[in-house]
Amino acid sequence: MGLIFRMQSFFLMMVFGLTQGYLPIVGYNFGHNNPERMKKTILIGNAAALSFGVIGFAVFQLFPEVIIKLFNSDPKLLNIGVSALKRVSLSYFFMVLNIIGVATFQAVGKGMPSFAITFLRQAVFLVPGMYILGEIFGLDAVWYSFPIAELTAFIIMSTWLMASIKDSMSKMRETV
């Protein structure tokens, strides 16, 4: 688990770097009632985040053994780690979009949805999902809790964000 989180953090650094540039641009355009530029920034930000998700997925699908051997070459760790990295990396497509969605909520001044989505992903879906899948199906299934948690959070986040952005943009257009 520790190895997966370490490897994931290298990959997520790119996404968090993206959000550091994305967030003020969306916020600036939101504050200046520029809905078209805000929409364009959101689309480009999501496309960039998704490309990072594809890169992370590809690296962890194609080279899991090489990555694990950088830390430890124990055969038992390799056996568990290879399947774990491949299963966890299925979540990257949704994880990066969840991260950029949370940043979008922050950019438009909606901290509570941002907090709620982050809390749901980790505390409500991931940790209990790991426990439940582990108890019912064993260690091999625990890793599927990552994509399940991210997909579930993505569905909630995207629905909430779409409604919120649509409302914000219509208010912005009214004031222009």
Largest sheet: none
Oligomer: single chain
Number of E-type strands? 0
* Weakly predicted, low-confidence segments: none
Q: Kindly report how far apart the N and C termini lie.
A: 51 Å
**Average pLDDT taken over every residue:** 93
Strand content: under 5%
Tell me the radius of gyration: 18 Å
Q: Give the CA-based shape.
A: elongated
Number of separate structural domains:
1
Percent range of helical residues: over 70%
Structural class: mainly alpha
How many helices? The count is 8
The succession of helices and strands, N to C, reads HHHHHHHH
Task: Please render the helix and strand layout as text.
Layout: H1 2-31, H2 35-62, H3 64-69, H4 75-88, H5 92-107, H6 111-137, H7 139-142, H8 145-175
